[in-house]
Amino acid sequence: MKNRRIVRGAPMDPLRSSSAVKPRCFFKIIISHITPHSTLTIPRRFIAQGYDLADKVFLKAPESSVWVVDLERTTGEAVLRNGWPEFAAYYSISIGHVILFKYEGNSQFHVTILDNSCTEIEYPMSASHNEQANRSGGFRKRKEQALITSKEGRKIKGTGIVKPDTVIPSQAKGASESAIEEGKARALALAKAFKSNKPFFFRRVYPSHVDGTQHGMHVTTAFKEAYENWKDNEQLTLQIAERTWQAECRWTSIGYKIGKGWCKFARDTSLATGDVCVFELVNSSQKLFEVIIYRATVKNENW
């Protein structure tokens, strides 16, 4: 009988191919504040494995519906862009958090989030969105969920209005009350995450701001530029992309208020209850405000 050679070591897995198994996970440590313009770069080594990633990827955290995020490719790199700031804001991701991405195929990633103590976070419940996702019949249909306006939004030709360009789960037609409230909460979270070296303030939109009963919006008292330097009947300009609106501020019994001109601005931009407006003072001498509108609900493509 011939001698049989015995190789000692780890047992052979008959199901494993002779080639090395591609890494399916990577992690990122958050080292800067999340802003509406934040991006996240996927490690080059992971991209080099040759996974066939589409220009939109799908992020799924525990107890959550799927988020659609744009994947932008440059030379040797792939970057998560539109949709990533909304995902990060919703889960309160901040400096020191560790994000683990596990690739599950078909441009889908399971995401685990660890806080500053290296402990997995308690994820917010999103049952209503999971139900909506199940009814939609697949990952790719989730891109039909609500849109949010951002500075990178595409301008609609001939209007000067910024078209929503970033996808977030939010309120859809016929959505449950919990889904509506979740959309409002996400819009507010994004506004709170806004950062700028210029003076700014933000306000939530309530029914009285858009139904004509209040005829304006009060400036928050935290915006000291107005309360310390402005006078009654002060003229200011609101701007989105290349379009501008003239408005007038005046003193009321409860503070400074954007009055005359507000109703036209609200009507032209289709403001709705639950939206959040960020007013960034980009030119103090001209009192020019760039307005960023974070949408809580789905908007008509033609607004």
CATH class category of the largest domain: Mainly Beta
Mean pLDDT: 74
CATH topology term of the largest domain? At1g16640 B3 domain
* Low-pLDDT segments, ≥5 res: 9-19, 127-175
Largest sheet: 7 strands, mixed
Number of domains: 2
Q: What is the general shape?
A: elongated
Query: Helix- and strand-based class?
Result: alpha+beta
Lateral arrangement of strands in the main beta sheet: 1-6-7-3-4-5-2
CATH superfamily of the largest domain: DNA-binding pseudobarrel domain
Number of strands: 18
Count of DSSP-assigned helices: 7
What pattern of helices and strands is seen along the backbone? Answer: EEHEEEHEEHEEEEHEHEHEEEHEE
Q: Helical percent range?
A: 10-25%
CATH architecture of the largest domain: Beta Barrel
Radius of gyration: 24 Å
What amount of the residues lies in strands? 25-35%
Query: How far apart lie the N and C ends?
Result: 85 Å
Protein name: TF-B3 domain-containing protein
GO cellular component, one term: nucleus
Organism: Daucus carota subsp. sativus (Carrot)
InterPro entries: B3_DNA-bd (IPR003340), DNA-bd_pseudobarrel_sf (IPR015300), Plant_B3_domain (IPR050655)
